[in-house]
Predict the structure of ATP synthase subunit delta.
Amino acid sequence: MSGSRAAIRYAKAVLSIATDQKSAEIVNNDMKRIAKTIAESDDLNGMIQSPVIKSSDKKSVLTSVFKDTNIATTNLIDTLIANKRLPLLNDVAISFSQLYDQLRDSQVATVTTAIALTDELKSKVLAKVKELTGKEAEVENIIDESILGGFILRVGDIQYNASIANKLNKLKREFTLN
């Protein structure tokens, strides 16, 4: 728990600096890229978490992987290395994006579908999310063919499951109970 509290503190500090420098959106894009890259690369995540690898080696790897980042992002990485808190980098990146969305009064709506969303459907989803929550949202489309059809909408702690697989499972449970 203390790790996530520390990550939130670092994220708040970077957000404050980025907002003062009018570069919060750029830093948010950096943080999203960092979180995505770490999530997709077990080797990078292992290197960041490793207590055996020297800080200087970690810094050179991170500098080459994330070379086109804003100065606030680069300073965050340097600070985490100096304070021996680099394993928090992913948590800081995720926390930063969440805080940035709260600052903008926005949120991410995750829509899981069997096929990619069209622009028309995406706009309908955005309208529905605005109606349900009163806030603007970004749509993140996850494609999962196992749901067969329909969609699963997740916004914050609200989830609406209108997938064909879910409806079939409900029918199956009804038949097995009778």
Observations:
- The mean pLDDT is 88.
